[in-house]
Structures are given as structure tokens and as C-alpha cells.
């Protein structure tokens, strides 16, 4: 028998109707025995997620204001789900305890975690699965970092004799039992942790899109779904702003080599996207994805013979470090060094940094170029293909876009290009067109 861990996002569990779809999905495959729910999400545009309602309710409690109305509205969301499913089940006692803990100022993390906790209880009752409180199986260190190895042991032991279970997403606890959450969207991490502990065959992550898209649908209309992507490719794209999973969710399953399948609760028959460690499967297109971010500044430092000056780079970089500015990219030439930084971080300290560089290395010239966007073109298939960079250039040239910088990562997995902010959308569209639409 296989073991599948299935995680459902907030929109998949926002209403009784969505719960029913989730129930059908789980019952359709006997291997789907370990379920990680998010808190109820938005039911329609403009609706509020239960997690946000909880933060808001707790803020009132913490400020000593009356929060009865707010907590009742949250309770109503669950009552609607429970009655819509026709369950003989009540959360009255849980809500009483939550009220008391809010009054006793149990903390924001505790408050936010109740969304998953309560949804987990409802789902466990609906499925007839065991409920496991994540505070008893997911541990954090005192400094707030996730205790990966300890958790893995504890979780594996707890699940050893378990037929099936619902384990709420998003939170765990410190050694003394105080609840701590991951950052927003953290239920994805819980799913990954459970998959690792179980040595699962597959981690299915159910959401409201049919997989990871080649690029941002706000820029390109109806982009293709990526069938298969490696963890590393996904990291590169996520770093550049593409999102489908919480960034940290990759690490636990990656350690165990477990594939992730992104699936759509509203279209369960769509194959979705497989995220894997490695694959011999040829990608459908030369590139796997395109992602990018706006708002960078390029600081270019020129000095003849800089290469022979030992410590030159270090001296320049330490000026950025002293000013707490993180460096995004560093394409360099022979007598020139270029440092790309976030514009908003840089501008505050601009003159201090420039004079710092002047003093540190006495360059021939320093120039700054603002309003740049970086675009990452990522794909494991690029290594075998000749002319990928050439095609990117010609796509940009056809669209009359000036490419200000190009940097091929040493992994040959990505090419980073710099264009001006205003050309950003058009640049992505033209790269998409040449690789995906014309399918060359
Ligand atoms: N409910 C939490 C959030 O809204 C965690 C999650 O959904 O993954 O961020």
C-alpha cells in the first residue's frame, strides 16, 4: 500500500461545498490517508480568510476591547460548514476555551493557529479520521527556528501505528507547549514535514489552480501549466517571485526525495504539476519557467587592472554589508564590477555607499543605474540546447527592448536578464512567445 500525504489549501476548505469535494478526492484513493488542512479561506472575491479574522479578533482582545462579535463571526464560519455537511458535531467547547485564552492573552500565534486547529477537527469528524494536534508533533527551538530533526523523529513515532489522520497545518509548539506558527502560507510546510516523517510516496498539494504556471498570468494570458519541474528549478523561480508553494516547503521532502504533486481541488482530473528531485523526462519546452522582479539599481564600479588588486571585491562588498544592503546579483567584467541591489534598500543609504566605495578602492568611476527589472529564465533543458541566450536576445530585440544585463548562472539552469522596469511585462511576454508559443 502506498502512502500519500494530502494538503488542502484554504480555498479548498472554505465552505461545506468545498469540504465535499475534498471528501470525494480523499475517498477516491485509499492511499490518501494523511491529511493536512489549512484554515477556511476566501469563498468569493472580497471575502476574508479565517486566519485574518483571527488576527483581527485577537488584536481586539489584546487591546482589552470587546471581541465577542468578532469571535462569533468566526464561529459562524465553522457552524456553516458543519451544518452544510450535516454533521452531528459542535465546536462550542473549543470556542469557550479559545475565548478564555484570548482573554488571558495567549499570543498572536496561538490565535492564528486556531483556524487550522478547528478546521482539522471538523475535517477529522467528517472523514472519520483520527485528529492529531500539531502542537504535539511539530517542535520549535527557543529562538523560533523549526526543529527539523527532532520533529521528524517525534512525528514518525507518533504516526507509526496510525491508520489515517488529520494533522492541522501552519503551527507547532515550543518545548513548553506554547504555540508557534510558521510564516503565512505555512501549511505547505506542515504537509512536507509529515510526508518526510512518513517516508511517503507522494505529497499532494491541493489548491485552486491546475499547477505551476510557466509565468505570471497577470502578465501573460493563460500561460501553460508546467508538467514537471525539479526542486532546484522551482527554487530559482520562487526566489524571483513565482509562487505556488511556500518557499520553505521544499526542504523536508527534498531531503527525503519525495515528489510533490500540485493539484486542483476544483478540477481533480487535471494532472497538475509534479515537483521532483531529478528526472530523465525531456521537458516539453526548452525553458521551464519565467519569473522576475522590478525595482533594482545597478552600481557599476570601474577600475583598470582591478583584477590584480587583491581584496578589491571584498572591499567593495563590505561597504554594502556595513550598510545592511543585501546583494541580489553580481555580473562582472574584467575591469568592471556590477552590483545589483534593491532600489528601496539602496536609496536610503545611497551617498554613504558611494563615498564608502570611493574611499575603499579609489575606482576610476562609479555609476548607478536605477529602475531595472530582473527576469530569470529557468530550465533544466537549457544546458543541452544551443542558442538559448541568443533566442532570448532576438526575442527582446524584436520587441525593441534594450537588454541591459545578462548573467548565466553557473548551474546553467538559469539566465538572468536585466531590462528597464517599464519593459518588464513586454520582455516576459516576448520570451514566453518565443519559447512556448512558437515551441522552438
Ligand atoms: N492559514 C494560514 C494563512 O492564511 C496558513 C496557510 O494557509 O497555509 O497564511
Describe the structure.
The protein is α/β, with parallel strands linked by helices. It has helices at 16-27, 50-62, 68-84, 92-103, 108-127, 148-159, 187-198, 231-239, 250-256, 312-322, 343-361, 388-398, 424-437, and strands spanning 4-8, 32-37, 130-131, 139-140, 165-166, 171-174, 179-181, 202-207, 228-230, 260-264, 273-276, 289-302, 327-329, 336-342, 365-378, 405-408, 414-420. The chain is globular, with a radius of gyration of 25 Å. The model has no long low-confidence stretch (mean pLDDT 94). The structure holds aspartic acid. Aspartic acid binds at residues 10, 38-39, 49, 51, 115, 169-170, 184-188.
Q: What's a quick, concise take on this entry?
A:
Helix content is 38%, strand content 21%. The protein has 440 residues and is an alpha/beta fold. The model has no long low-confidence stretch (mean pLDDT 94).
What would the keywords be for this entry?
single chain; alpha/beta; 440 residues; binds aspartic acid; 6-stranded antiparallel sheet; 8-stranded mixed sheet; 38% helix; 17 strands; 13 helices
State the low-pLDDT regions, or none.
none
Euclidean distance between termini CA atoms: 42 Å
Output the strand order for the largest sheet: 3-5-2-1-8-10-11-9
Shape: globular
Radius of gyration: 25 Å
Order of helices and strands: EHEHHHHEEHEEEHEEHHEEEHEEHEHEEH
Q: Structural class of the helices, strands and pairings?
A: alpha/beta
Largest sheet: 8 strands, mixed
Bound compounds, please?
A: aspartic acid
Assembly of the depicted chains: single chain
Approximately how much beta-strand content do the residues carry? Answer: 15-25%
Helicity level: 25-40%
Mean pLDDT: 94
Count of helical segments? 13
Record field, number of beta strands: 17
